[in-house]
């Protein structure tokens, strides 16, 4: 089972960071550690700063105070391509250039492995093929991205990040637009990648999926971390009530034994 | 990117068409010269008069048409890629109008010569670009804001330019108006060399930035995670793009349509996603060479090529606007 997997001390952590957009401070004095080898899932209500945290972890957003540290060195001190071969981000919104085909888009994930003088290699080809196969998009590879359904498109973007072949993957809402079967398929894929040694960090909205798949959960509210740890240890009725303002019952998931949240609603 | 056979083939065909257009342009005129003699003249042979007509009268003009057309095509490709919009070309977003303003100020207020005018055009283009960029800036200049603000700026500068010309006394106004029509008339090798020098400086930098440029088309976050400093890259590309437009404006006056249309036509032909620099440059060169030939020979009188391109460009722009509005 996933719970038995060994997770090491953190390679990637946020240390006393202030995250802001100009005047607007989202997180103050934020400290978060991503256990190495974990499948970490970030949960929290809308606008609680999940994407902001993920962007800081990927160096897309620089903290105005404090630091994000990878292997003991601040992200700011890394050479950018070297960092891009270590950390891959699926942003919440990306743009596909007009008329680009699936294969060409996924191939752009190889950018950090290439240079002006080393443009396209067999390793690139293999990485793209593997990423297409892993996301079930091989059949789509010659199609223009504009003509795909939302769910197909989302899987293509995930394939692009996979093609980057980074040991750490940061995925912002990778399951949006996916039907339930494809959501589970994608989470299974993340779990497989994690089992093969990659550290996966994902923002998810479905708490039950988070409890089922995460080895480590980070619950956020108003830009602060409210709780973090293994789902079994931290997901309680009080936590869900506190973070989401949702009265609920928690029962053991009949399949996996992980916490299963049942909203009380209005009865 | 992977080996791109179609792109290479398109570029080869474009080069061939440019060569054909060049041959036609060198042999036609008041003194028609058979292609065989043109060839001989270019290689240093042929009759002395023929050699003079070909190499000193017609060749510099043809070279400038190709080089400036290429520069305009590149500039258009850069800005259309940065704004992710086929309307985001420097002639639409005010940079050409700004270059003309700079040149007008030099011609009318300081009665400057060729190089001063060119310098004024360069300064005007850069100043306009800086204004548009700063006005559109909100945590990085966004494509659509840039276009809307640029179109507004272009209209304002257009009115200001017209006012400046009306204020001037007749001879100065005439020379300003002639320059403002955008023409390759009377250009010689003296004007070719600075253009070549600038292009030799700019194109290698642009070549090195073309892969990051394509990556930037995926959005800032995606570009940053592939190891690109998006803000710095965008600024560098804008400077190069403005320099290319200003270069053309300085040498020949404002010539519209080429930077708007060349990248889009090239894209249709290569069927590639995004904007591709080399085919855009070649397409720009071909378009301007052909347009200049038509302007010189098709109407009995020599028209400024800018008049040609602006009238074709009007229709194209209308079509583009209608198509964008429908989306
Ligand atoms: N580019 C931005 N500029 C200004 N404010 C932003 C930007 N992106 C997000 N925010 C604000 O930051 C807060 C947290 O956003 P975000 O991290 O995207 O939340 P989440 O991903 O948890 O829904 C929100 O209040 C949002 O309005
Ligand atoms: Mg978000």
UniProtKB/TrEMBL annotation, chain A:
Pfam families per UniProt: ABC_tran (PF00005)
Keywords: ATP-binding, Cell membrane, Ion transport, Iron, Iron transport, Membrane, Nucleotide-binding, Transport
Record protein name field: ABC transporter ATP-binding protein
Localization per Swiss-Prot or TrEMBL: Cell membrane
Record GO terms (molecular function): ATP binding; ATP hydrolysis activity
SUPFAM superfamilies: P-loop containing nucleoside triphosphate hydrolases
ABC transporter domain sequence ranges: 12-247
GO biological process: iron ion transport
PROSITE patterns in the cross-refs: ABC_TRANSPORTER_1, ABC_TRANSPORTER_2
Chief location of this protein within or outside the cell: membrane
Organism: Ensifer oleiphilus
The keyword Thylakoid belongs to this UniProt entry's keyword annotation: no
Family: Belongs to the ABC transporter superfamily.
InterPro entries found in the cross-reference section: AAA+_ATPase, ABC_transporter-like_ATP-bd, ABC_transporter-like_CS, P-loop_NTPase, Siderophore_ABC-ATPase
Domain of life: Bacteria
Topology in membrane: Peripheral membrane protein
From TrEMBL, chain B:
InterPro entries xref list: ABC_BtuC-like, ABC_transptr_permease_BtuC
Alphabetical list of CDD domains matching this protein: TM_ABC_iron-siderophores_like (cd06550)
Pfam families, per database record: FecCD
Signal peptide bounds: none
Membrane topology of the entry: Multi-pass membrane protein
GO cellular component, one term: plasma membrane
Molecular function via GO: transmembrane transporter activity
Entry annotated with the keyword Transferase: no
Transmembrane intervals: 62-80, 92-112, 118-137, 144-164, 170-187, 192-213, 233-262, 274-295, 301-322
Superkingdom of source: Bacteria
UniProt GO BP: siderophore-iron import into cell
Main localization category: membrane
Subcellular location field: Cell membrane
Keyword terms of this UniProt record: Cell membrane, Membrane, Transmembrane, Transmembrane helix, Transport
Family indicated by similarity: Belongs to the binding-protein-dependent transport system permease family. FecCD subfamily.
Name the UniProt record assigns to this protein: Iron chelate uptake ABC transporter family permease subunit
Organism, scientific name: Ensifer oleiphilus
Classification lineage: Bacteria, Pseudomonadati, Pseudomonadota, Alphaproteobacteria, Hyphomicrobiales
């Amino acid at each position: 089972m996933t719970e038995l997997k060994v997770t090491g001390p953190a390679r990637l952590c946020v240390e006393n960071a202030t995250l802001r957009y100009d005047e607007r401070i989202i997180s103050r004095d934020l400290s978060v550690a991503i256990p190495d080898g974990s499948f970490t899932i970030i949960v929290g209500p809308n606008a609680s700063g999940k994407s902001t945290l993920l962007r800081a972890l990927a160096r897309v957003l620089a903290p105005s105070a404090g630091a994000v540290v990878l292997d003991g060195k601040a992200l700011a001190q890394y050479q950018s391509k070297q960092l891009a071969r270590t950390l891959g981000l699926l942003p919440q919104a990306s743009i596909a250039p007009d008329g680009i085909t699936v294969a060409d888009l996924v191939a752009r994930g190889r950018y950090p492995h290439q240079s002006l003088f080393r443009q396209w290699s067999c390793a690139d080809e293999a990485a793209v093929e593997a990423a297409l196969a892993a996301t079930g998009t091989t059949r789509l590879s010659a199609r223009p991205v504009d003509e795909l359904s939302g769910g197909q498109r989302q899987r293509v973007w995930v394939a692009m990040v996979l093609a980057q072949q980074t040991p750490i993957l940061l995925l912002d809402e990778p399951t949006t637009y996916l039907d339930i079967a494809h959501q589970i398929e994608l989470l299974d894929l993340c779990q497989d990648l994690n089992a093969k040694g990659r550290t996966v960090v994902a923002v998810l909205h479905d708490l039950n999926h988070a409890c089922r798949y995460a080895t480590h959960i980070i619950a956020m509210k108003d830009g602060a971390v409210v709780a973090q740890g293994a789902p079994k240890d931290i997901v309680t009725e009080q936590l869900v009530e506190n973070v989401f303002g949702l009265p609920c019952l928690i029962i053991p998931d009949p399949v996996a034994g992980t916490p299963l949240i049942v909203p009380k609603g209005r009865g | 990117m992977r080996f791109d056979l179609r792109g290479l083939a398109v570029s080869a065909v474009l080069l061939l068409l440019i060569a054909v257009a060049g041959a036609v342009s060198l042999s036609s005129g008041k003194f028609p010269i058979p292609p065989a003699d043109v060839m001989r003249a270019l290689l240093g042979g042929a009759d002395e008069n023929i050699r003079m007509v070909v190499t000193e009268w017609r060749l510099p003009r043809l070279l400038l048409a190709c080089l400036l057309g290429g520069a305009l095509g590149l500039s258009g490709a850069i800005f259309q890629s940065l704004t992710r919009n086929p309307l985001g070309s420097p002639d639409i977003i005010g940079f050409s109008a700004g270059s003309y303003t700079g040149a007008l100020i030099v011609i009318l207020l300081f009665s400057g010569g060729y190089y001063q005018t060119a310098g004024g055009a360069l300064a005007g283009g850069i100043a306009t670009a800086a204004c548009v960029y700063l006005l559109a800036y909100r945590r990085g200049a966004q494509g659509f804001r840039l276009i809307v603000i640029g179109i507004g700026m272009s209209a304002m500068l257009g009115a200001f330019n017209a006012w400046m010309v009306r204020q001037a006394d007749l001879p100065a106004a005439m020379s300003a108006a002639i320059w403002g029509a955008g023409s390759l008339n009377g250009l010689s090798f003296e004007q070719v060399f600075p253009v070549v020098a600038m292009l030799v400086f700019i194109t290698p930098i642009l070549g090195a930035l073309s892969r990051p440029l394509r990556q930037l088309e995926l959005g800032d976050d995606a570009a940053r995670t592939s190891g690109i400093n998006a803000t710095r890259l965008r600024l560098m590309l804008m400077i190069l793009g403005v320099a290319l437009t200003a270069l053309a404006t300085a040498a020949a006056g404002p010539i519209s349509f080429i930077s708007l249309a060349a990248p889009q036509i090239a894209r249709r032909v290569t069927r590639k996603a995004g904007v591709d620099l080399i085919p855009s440059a070649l397409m720009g060169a071909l378009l301007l060479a052909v347009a200049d030939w038509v302007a010189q020979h098709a109407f009995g009188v020599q028209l400024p090529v800018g008049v040609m391109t602006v009238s074709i460009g009007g229709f194209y722009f209308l079509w583009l606007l209608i198509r964008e509005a429908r989306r």
